[in-house]
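Sample entry (183 residues):
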Amino acid sequence: MRVRDWQDILQEVTEESTDPDGWRAVAGNRRNGVGEDLFIGHPSVGVYQLKTYAKNPRELRGVGTRVARRVDDGLDPLLPAEDAAGRFAVRTPPEDEDHAKEMATRLEETLKVHAEAPTEPDHLFEDVMEAMDAPAFGPMDYEFDGRPDELDELTDEFEEAERLLSAELEDLIEDDAVGRGFH
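Predicted structure, serialized as tokens:
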């Protein structure tokens, strides 16, 4: 198991995504300490575990690893169903100014279509993500002030990854002196 920077994991997700709307995620506070836990999975790509924390209001730091090569029958019920209330997306920046203008035009057209006709929020979300070329998006189970039960179950399922990632994250937090507060 290779522990990497959390941004490298998200880069891998964007590169491997052949079915952008097939991703699902579960996230919440870490069990112990500063930061958040995130599991993101796709049936054919696998499951990734990430641990992040805010070093300051503008900088997020963290670590992650791939914990499963595919979503099997044991993991599938732990990831949210399509009708889950929350949504998430991984975005990539436009390649250049022309690409940014093209994305803006597609987004504007998408919003006009949805403004003129009755639509479901999920359909709007999916169409906006497609207009923006989002490489990964889908349902998410997230608790701002806690942990979804499924997050605990996934953490327990991948106990070794949890230990390694927690140790790496604690080292980052200690190096950044984030856990100490202000003097």
